[in-house]
Design goal:
By secondary structure, this protein is an all-alpha fold. The chain has four helices and no strands. The mean pLDDT is 86.
Length: 109
């Protein structure tokens, strides 16, 4: 474990931001490069290019390409949610409904 920084309050200013001299204050060294690459991508790819790529992806999915179908569905609907998580959410909703029902009955009495 590393020793706490001696700058500011454990390396942070009164707003919780990293202060100068804190080893974590440098940020992401690749962020500037990634921003330049992303900007170039936006300059290069036209809406028509994007539309053509999407049409091709849909065509591949319709032709039975399961990887294309998965990519398309993941982008449109988000990644699939685990059934276990859904079951837990439903159980919590049932529990909350029962608690509300019991509370409503105790307020009547």
């Amino acid at each position: 474990m590393t020793a706490p920084s001696t700058t500011g309050s454990n390396g942070r200013d009164r707003h919780g931001r990293f202060t100068e001299g804190n080893c974590c204050a440098r940020g992401n060294p690749q962020a500037r490069r990634a921003a330049r690459l992303r900007a170039e991508l936006f300059r290069t790819v036209t809406p028509r290019d994007l539309s053509e790529v999407i049409v091709a992806l849909v065509a591949q999915a319709r032709a039975g390409d399961t990887a294309a179908a998965k990519l398309l569905l993941d982008r449109l609907l988000g990644p699939p949610v685990s059934l276990d998580i859904l079951e837990r959410i439903e159980a919590l909703e049932r529990s909350a409904a029962q608690a509300e029902h019991h509370e409503a009955q105790s307020n009547v009495a």
